């Protein structure tokens, strides 16, 4: 993962980007949305783990969408 600060707002934006790239029902998308909504350490850890398991092209595409 890029060394950007991933706060709750950024997780929400990542969830929206992944919904476009992978689909709204993708487990990583839903985990990021949950982490953005709750902000609990367990949800953040789960979202981060699932995000890192994505294909590198999907991760890079989602992070590139944040730069706009």
General description of the model:
With 68 residues, the protein is mainly alpha-helical. The protein has one domain. The chain is 74% helix and 0% strand. It has helices at 8-21, 27-38, 41-53, 56-66. Helix 2 (27-38) packs antiparallel against helix 3 (41-53). 25% of the residues are buried.
Residues in helices, as a percent range: over 70%
- Morphology call: globular
Distance between the termini: 18 Å
Q: How much of the polypeptide forms β-strand, as a percent range?
A: under 5%
Provide the fold topology:
Blueprint: H1 8-21, H2 27-38, H3 41-53, H4 56-66
Helix pairs in contact: 1-2, 1-4, 2-3
Tags for this model:
globular, 4 helices, 68 residues, single chain, mainly alpha
